[in-house]
Amino acid sequence: MTVSYGRPSASAPRLRGGLPGADEGGPFEHPSYVRASAEHEGTEPVVLDAGGGRLVLLAGGGSLHTVYGYPQPAGAATAVADALAAIDVPLRVALSPLGAGGELAQALRARLPLADERAICVTDLDSDPMEVFDASARSMVRRALREGTSVEVGAVRSDFGPMYRRAMDAIGAADLYRFSDAYMAAMGSAGAFQVTVSDPYGVAAAALFLTRGPEATYHLSARRDEPRPVPGAANLVLLEGLRECARRGAQACLLGGGRSGDPKDALLRFKSGMSTRTLTRPTFSTAR
Fold first, then answer.
1. Whole-angstrom distance, CA of residue 199 vs CA of residue 205
2. Cα–Cα distance, 183 to 105 (Å, whole number)
3. Among residues 92, 97, 39, 51, which one has the least CA distance to residue 72?
């Protein structure tokens, strides 16, 4: 892909093919994660270098976009923002609302068109997560424990992919969210762990969490359809996942938002009951 930044110079921004360095960034800059995301979408990973700053992008179909999830830039936000604003192909940018991602998003507000804005729930991990859950979420956890559940925290399991895709089928999710077994296996290479809650009928609910450095994310989750899982199974998955994120050194975990921009969205309300704060994440787009 050819991208013009105007008059070339030694300090001009550039796009280079390939993956970020093995020690760069957070969960969404891990080379295994970027590679898996590109293969899932049929795109190519590229790195934007600008004034000492960097941002990982995916290129395909004559356009550029950030990876799915909550990517973080590195280096000077202003230099990266200027470079993104100068790109002459369709572009879509959505970042982590934490740290450098939030700083770059703020810089982009004056430079790129705002396409969407969503509430994102975050749980800070400076205390036991159960202490910050609201009364309803704590009650659901206790109910799940009373009804004979067990919890396993470990590597990504081979049964997660089929369970997750059945859950996506049930809600009519777009193909973009129907991740393959190869993608799930790659998440293990990217540092993911799985939390699995079982009840008397088998696996009731499970989720994959990604951690790297101070940041973690509640990446993918699914519940059994029938028979209905014991009440509180999903809350228990989140509790034990957050505890494991803290054990692995994360300072905060991004739980994500809802299925829509509606502030009354059911998924958003579910996550809000287990978060310590809600941040706004904008998406910028120059696509026509």
1. 9
2. 28
3. 97
- 233-247 and 135-146 are packed helices; what angle lies between their axes, rounded to 10 degrees? 100
Check residue 273 and report its DSSP letter.
T
d(CA 88, CA 224) in angstroms, rounded, equals: 45
Q: Is 177 left (phi over 0), alpha (psi -120 to 50) or beta?
A: alpha
Average pLDDT over residues 168-193: 93
Residue 265: pLDDT band (50, 70, 90) is very high
242 phi, psi to nearest 5 deg: -65, -40
Contacts of 195 (CB under 8 A, 6+ apart): 151, 152, 153, 206, 207, 209, 237, 240, 241, 244
- Judge whether residue 128 has pLDDT over 90: yes
With a pLDDT cut of 90, the percent of the chain lying above it is 86
pLDDT at residue 229 is higher than 60: yes
- Residue 66: name the closest of 39, 86, 40, 48 by CA: 48
Q: Are 255 and 218 in contact (CB under 8 A)?
A: yes
Closest CA to 151 of 203, 190, 216: 203
What are the backbone angles phi and psi of residue 235, rounded to the nearest 5°? -65, -40
- From CA 32, how far away is CA 29, in angstroms rounded? 8
243 class by beta-carbon count within 10 Å (0-12 exposed, 13-18 middle, 19+ buried): middle
Nearest CA-CA partner of 3 in 12, 15, 11: 15
CA–CA distances in Å: residue 100 to residues 54, 112, 218: 11, 17, 19
The pLDDT, as a whole number, for residue 21 is 84
Segment 97-103 mean pLDDT: 96
- Quote the pLDDT of residue 24: 83
